[in-house]
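The records we work with from here on pair a chain with its fold. These numbers are not coordinates but entries in a learned vocabulary of local backbone shapes. To see the layout at work, look at the sequence and tokens printed below.
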Amino acid sequence: MRNIFKPSYLHPAENYFDWLEADRLVEFCQNNNKRLHGHTLIWHNQLPDWIMNFQGSQSEWELMFKEHIQTICLHFKGKVKSWDVVNEAFNDNGTLRNTIWKQKIGSSYIEKAFRYAHEADPDALLFYNDYDIALNETKRKAILSLLNNLRQRGVTVHGIGMQMHISVVHPENHQIAAALKELSENDFKIHLSEVDISLNPLSREFELTDELLERQANKLAAITLLYKEIPSRYQYGITFWGVSDRNSWIREHFNRDDYPLLFDDNYDPKPVYCKFKETL
């Protein structure tokens, strides 16, 4: 489910969109009265080969870019409540990442992505999504500067996805509080996105203990309470990056033993789930 809205899955060939899995998710959400957030329209990873190998002028790249965004937004209009329009466009030092989109279209691709998405579905809420927003103040301020500049020029940007791939150690709670305060004071809705809390961030051999599970539960409870402290109009939601530890991306991506999610390998609720439920 983490991947089915990404370009490599949804738009695998230049003149072909594969709607099957995404439409099934839409149907499930409609049947169960669930709000659906689309992730992601534009990213530099998980692109199909045809995009990576696309041959054309800047204007042809921009037309392809526009058609990709608007075809997807129009297909899911009224079904997907909100979108991560652009994902992870910044380097850690606050500069724009030199993605294929920036290379072929220019740094204005972010502005164009938001404009095209809004044109296609004026009712959808539009987010910019990135990681280390709490931990990296330089990056956070660069993101805010760009998004505020876009707004000043009439571009619709509703919110910021604050990715929470974190650990029981970092970022510290006061850093998370500062980020939430700054983003909300800049009048952005905040989506706590991609939440998972690593118990083994240094990839060491370790033993899963009750003490570690309790620390994980307390970390999520603290974050939830901090989130509830900002004005409710800025609380868009909290989304976890998976359900069971068995299927966490961390194990495969980093090849390490870890238990970052709400349910264990047998889909039994962990202390972090119980504490989260109590804190909501």
